[in-house]
Design brief:
Elements: H1 2-24, E1 35-43, E2 54-63, E3 69-78, H2 85-92, E4 106-107, E5 117-125, E6 140-152, E7 158-169, E8 176-177, E9 180-181, E10 194-202, E11 217-219, H3 223-228, H4 233-244, H5 250-253, E12 255-259, H6 261-270, E13 274-277, E14 283-285, H7 289-303, E15 308-310, H8 318-323, H9 327-345, E16 353-354, H10 363-368, E17 377-381, E18 392-395, E19 401-405, H11 407-412, E20 417-420, E21 426-428, H12 440-451, E22 462-464, H13 474-489, E23 493-495, H14 514-518, H15 523-540, E24 543-544, H16 553-563, H17 576-594, E25 598-599, E26 606-608, E27 615-620, E28 626-634, E29 639-641, E30 647-649, E31 654-659, E32 661-663, E33 667-676, E34 687-693, H18 698-726
Helix pairs in contact: 4-7, 4-13, 6-7, 6-9, 12-13, 15-16, 15-17
């Protein structure tokens, strides 16, 4: 039996082996090992024959897991050069191979404890084939991978972090081969410069809450203070533009700056002082007034006299608005954007050029915006037209011309994570976070496009249009503009002004991608903002224009209508939760403004001592414009109120209104006072008023009079009846049919009838019987 039992036990172990291994490897049982790699330098960003012969990468590795990691090692490895657009797309998505050359690892001494960080550095010779060398012998664009390995908590060595990027090699510097200096390897072909244009977006998400003139500007957070300051993203974008592409330079010829007018207006308001409202409602002073003032001055100086495109106000999602029935808001966004940007920048704008979010638009939106004064030209994605693969300028059917952006370059400028490798972590791109290398993929893709002409000829134009909400910051933008200048000097690119005219091919039709529709701002948010604009319009009907006032109704209500475009900003595309939150904040703030127009609640109840005593009500107006209002008293169970004439309340003031009322009952009761526009729309919320009456109302008095009269009548009736009862029949026999024997008043009593004894004659006393014997 023992041998049999042993065999069974062995069999069970073999059968349980795979399941036991699975259980051992379950995520819940394995130590949580996680590293984060943040690169901060790559030299050179573009390889040329007169540049360094060694690629240097530096960065920081942080242990974000819960277990220590020992045996750290890092290396820089590469894949084969890109040859086709498909190769480039695969590299940008993290699907391209990076194991064509796998140099040696560089060990990092020590153990990295949870939460700790350590600096790493790799020096990889470009042309060397041993050690850490990359073995690059021909120009091209190469996928690179920074690979971090380690041993988490005594486990086997594995890849724990990785970052991919593209390295453009225009030409190779000389290298020492077998003790001798080799020749440079050139890659630039003279006379093949491609026309190049770039849209340079300066955009941020909306931060401002609705407000009215005279009150302190309120923001939802203080992120703009950091972005405007030295080292911030928006500060860096403007600084790189001013330094690398000043007005009048060759590079600036091919640049057109796209600005969000709401961002400019917010910076202008911040410069005068502002406050920040936290999610819990607490308010604190803002810290970025000086930074906002300096940044706005820098933007104005950098953009004066150059190509500038104004995006729709708050970069509104035009297609989401029109597809949900709010064409007026789409028109308002386009017109307001150009008006605000023109006033602040004080420079001519490309006012007929429209660059919609994601470079896509549908026929209904274009029709709603029809007219050369609104849309004389478009900047679109090449995926937004029916004829795929188009480049340059195309003509739309019965519409304006459109310049088509290069979708490969747009993808390279868009943050994206690559899929997880088998058994390894997610491989991130530098563009996934705002780092100094955020534009390295874009530099590589642009070099690939400049050195290759896939089926379109060497002179086909290149239009670079990053996402509106571009994640690049100062260092990244500076590196990109420097790379463009380098490629221009090498005869690969030729900066040209942006144009939407001169199409040489047959007209094409618009195509609105399915994915674009799925990313739109939700219809519920569009409906809600349309309702909020209706509320603003209702209040505006009560506003009165005063020629002597500093603030006009338009000064109050036009900005409020524009503020309702922030919840439908294209910044919230694909982020419905943030769009809904923005709508909630706008609605709450609008309710606060409307609530300043109301009847003020007195400190105590009204005490009425007579039935027709008047009520004195104080009506307040917290808006900086005069309003004509109507006061309505509701819940009048205890009062009868005479009609109240319409009242005019001065800006930021209050008035007292005398309300004629009659008490219809005594005691304490409540009534609601509502302030409305002359057409009957409610302004502020109802105010509950307490009324205490010690007087009798009209109805009470009439009830009392009637009750008293009835009581008097009843008393008189009783007296009359008693009088009749006490009166007897007349003296002497009565003539008439009642005489004679028989029943009746004069006859003998009927059987069983009892009659009162006749009254005794006056002056006689009781008869005393005489007793005789």
């Amino acid at each position: 039996m023992r041998p049999v039992a042993a065999l069974v036990a062995i069999a069970l172990l073999f059968l349980a082996g795979p399941f036991a291994g699975s259980a051992t490897a379950a995520p819940g049982d394995a130590p949580a090992a996680s590293l984060q790699l943040a690169l901060d330098q790559l030299t050179p960003r573009v390889v040329t024959s007169d540049g360094p012969s060694v690629v240097t990468v530096t960065g920081t590795v942080t242990n974000t897991g819960s277990v220590p990691v020992a045996g750290l090692a890092v290396r820089l490895q590469r894949g084969d050069p890109l040859h086709t657009d498909s190769d480039a797309a695969a590299a940008l998505e993290g699907r391209a191979g990076t194991d064509a050359v796998s140099p040696s690892f560089v060990d990092v001494p020590g153990t990295l404890e949870p939460g700790a960080s350590i600096s790493v550095r790799i020096d990889a010779p470009l042309r060397a084939t041993g050690g850490t060398g990359l073995g690059i012998d021909t120009p091209g664009t190469y996928p690179l991978l920074v690979n971090v390995n380690g041993e988490p908590d005594g486990q086997a060595r594995a890849r724990l972090a990785a970052t991919r990027m593209l390295l453009p090699v225009l030409s190779l510097p000389a290298a020492v081969v077998d003790g001798a200096l080799s020749e440079d390897v050139g890659g630039t072909v003279p006379g093949t410069a491609r026309p190049f244009t770039m849209l340079y977006p300066i955009v941020d998400v909306p931060h401002r809450l609705p407000g009215v003139p005279g009150e302190t500007t309120t923001l939802t957070d203080d992120e703009l203070a950091r972005s405007f300051a030295e080292g911030g993203r928006l500060n860096g974008l403007v600084g790189a533009l001013a330094q690398r592409a000043p007005v009048g330079s060759t590079l600036r010829t091919g640049l057109c700056v796209a600005v969000d007018p709401d961002l400019l207006q917010t910076a202008q308001a911040m410069a005068d002082g502002y406050q920040v409202r936290a999610p819990d409602g607490t308010v604190s002073p803002g810290t970025g007034a000086d930074a906002a003032r300096a940044w706005l001055a820098g933007v104005t100086a950098a953009l004066r006299g150059s190509c500038v495109v104004a995006l729709p106000f708050a970069d509104a999602d035009l297609v989401a608005l029109t597809r949900n029935g709010d064409e007026d808001a789409a028109v308002r966004a386009v017109e307001a954007g150009r008006e605000v940007a023109g006033d602040i920048l004080d420079t001519p704008l490309q006012n007929s050029l429209l660059w919609p979010a994601d470079g896509v638009i549908d026929d209904a939106t274009l029709s709603a915006l029809a007219g050369p004064e609104r849309v004389g030209g478009l900047v679109l994605s090449s995926a937004a037209v029916t004829q795929a693969g188009r480049t340059g300028v195309v003509a739309l059917d019965d519409g304006p011309g459109a310049a088509l952006a290069d979708d490969l370059l747009t993808s390279a400028a868009t943050p994206a994570d690559a899929p997880a490798t088998a058994g390894g972590p997610v491989t991130s791109s530098p563009a996934a976070v705002s780092t100094p290398l955020s534009t390295q993929d874009l530099i590589g893709a642009l070099a690939f496009r400049a050195t290759s002409s896939p089926g379109q000829g060497p002179s086909s134009p290149v239009l670079l249009a990053p996402p509106h909400l571009w994640g690049a910051e100062g260092t990244g933008a500076d590196a990109l503009l420097s790379a463009i200048s380098l490629m221009t000097d090498r005869g690969l690119l030729e900066p040209r002004a942006l144009t939407t005219s001169g199409a040489t091919t047959r007209p094409t039709s618009l195509l609105y991608p399915i994915g674009a529709g799925a990313a739109e701002v939700p219809a519920s948010v569009v409906d809600r903002t349309r309702g909020l604009v209706g509320d603003i319009d209702a209040v505006a009907t009560a506003a009165v224009a005063d020629p002597g006032a500093d603030v006009t109704p338009d000064d109050v209500f036009v900005p409020l209508r524009r503020a309702m475009l922030r919840p439908v900003s294209a910044a919230w595309r694909g982020r419905p939760v943030l769009a809904t939150r923005a709508a909630d904040l706008a609605s709450t703030r609008l309710d606060e403004l409307r609530a300043t127009v109301r009847v003020l609640e007195p400190p105590g109840p009204y005490s009425l001592g007579t039935s027709d005593a008047p009520l004195l009500m104080t009506v307040s107006n917290g808006l900086p414009v005069a309003l004509d209002v109507r006061i309505v008293i509701a819940s009048t169970a205890g009062l009868q109120v005479a009609p109240i004439p319409d009242q005019r309340i001065p800006p930021l003031g209050r008035i007292q209104v005398r309300v004629s009322a009659q008490v219809v009952r005594a005691g304490q009761f409540a009534v609601d006072a509502i302030v409305q526009t002359p057409r009957g729309d409610d302004l502020g919320p109802p105010t509950r008023l307490q009324v205490r009456s010690t007087a009798y109302g009209t109805v009470t008095v009439w009830l009392t009079v009637i009750a008293g009269a009835l009581l008097v009548l009843l008393v008189i009736r009783r007296i009359v009846r008693r009088a009749r009862d006490r009166s007897g029949p007349p003296d002497g026999p009565a003539d008439g049919p009642g005489d004679g024997p028989g029943p009746g008043p004069g006859g003998p009593p009927a059987p069983g009838e009892r009659r009162p004894s006749p009254p005794e004659p006056a002056g006689t006393g009781p008869t005393v019987p005489i007793r005789t014997e």
